[in-house]
Amino acid sequence: MMIANLPGEWLTSFWLLSIGVGLGLILLALSVGLFMLLSRVGLGRVVDSSRSGFMIVGGVLSGLSLVLGLLVWSWFTRVPAGGVAQDPGWVLAFLLLVPATAFFGFGTAGMFTRRAQEQLFEWLGEGISFWLLAIAIVMSIFAVFGIVGQQLPLIRFVSKPVSMLESVRRLPLTGVQPEIKVSINPGLIDDAGAPVKVDFYTGELKRIGFNTSQRIEFSTDPITPESDREKILEMAGATETTYFNKVDVEEKLPKGYIENFYVRNLSDRPAELSIMVETQPEYPQVTGIFVTMFATWAAFMVILFQSVLMPKESAIAWSTFKTETSQPLFGILLGVGIVFLMIALYIPYNTFGEDIKMYITTGRPVILLLSIFFAVWASSKSVAEEIDGRTALTVLAKPLSRRQFLIGKALGIGWAVGLLFLGIGLCFLFLVSYKTIYDGVEASKGSLPWQDGYTEMAKVVPALVLGYMETMVFVFISVMISTRLAVVSNLMICFSIYMLGHITPMLLEKEDTFETVTVVGQLITTVIPVLEHFDVSAAIVGDATVPAAYLGWALVYSTLYCGVALLIALILFEDRDLS
Length: 579
What we know:
single chain; 3 domains
């Protein structure tokens, strides 16, 4: 079945992603404008005047960013009404926020300097920035066409874009509403019920909770003998709050805004009633727009801050990036990954309606292996062969230290792998959204809602993020090995680490494992990375959500391991004879 013949507006999921990317570009433009403005009102002179001025401005901005980050963290980890108290994870917060805010603060201070203002647009137009801008602009154009196409039936491919943008506007107005507490006197036979003001929109209702000390009944209209009893909800007195999801009560609630509940006390004593209402936008999927927007903006900020804080390393990084991405292998791996994902789209997995899960768990390892292979190959070509060919000696003859050379190489390879990962990953998200609807049509379920495709696409994103973290671990390991060994040895060692990193934790989980195997396994997991931390296939198969805290701890683990690998690489490279 061709895509053009597929019913359902399945591109809506990717359109939401594109909206976030477009907003990220707007946020980037505003940030660049702010940097240029503040550099001209005095901050530029303060930062350029002396190193102490740079340190003071950077320290102040870092402190303000840290405070803001902790406030946002505490807001996201707050306990909602009727929710269960959760660990706010302050240790994780400080491990992530302290280095991130320091990088942001001093990077922002560096953007006020004269050199940064002169080279700002050059940084945005070279290396990976150029490709990110190109991808972001194409996706932004796609987002605009999704809105304009609503008026043109021939190119209409988005489901109710105006309504979804209205959901974005309604986001600040939704959430957990203040608890409503009232006292209801015993009702008479002809009592229509006491009005209780609630004021919410049924399309935005997520759940509603009631806690009453007596038996009551309530409706959205005055209760009369002619009232439809199926529209009246009755509750007995209980000590705990009873919560109903939207699906539980949507048949009893009229569509539109509800201003009052009419409550009648069916007992002979006063009833103490508490009502808790939690709402969400009619299309809660729009929250993903802001995640994509922040990710797009953050990617460009990292590039700019790296360029201003590490100028020599960045020069090596961009040169390495251009060299590796211009190699035929980069295009071959990119093409192989995309073609494989398109072919795997139509393979019958015979999983009784769960083909999408098999497709996801098949596609992710392919992207990962292609990226790891490219990382190892690029490291050997860029580091090992330059050392053996004495090219590194020529480069280091300039005012450039070995530390700056090696860090620049690692960063450049990391950005090149990131572009490969991004290219295949975006195609993967696009095809996952399509396959969800395609499988529904193949199973004669008719045109499925686009939300099904979005749900599956949202499951893939954490898996891809963790996959890139795992790939970056191999980037630094392969750079470390390349300081001493050639490409064949590098490939063999990295392949062994990949196998042991995934197999060893599984052996240690078995209860009947021999003691010798356990000791050796624990030694291996201490020395090499535990790659099972980055595999969430079980969560995808079990329809479980990957917590944000899990991604945070995985980021801390991968960063520490990359740091250790880089430190060993610097030690090995320091006394390497380049002549």
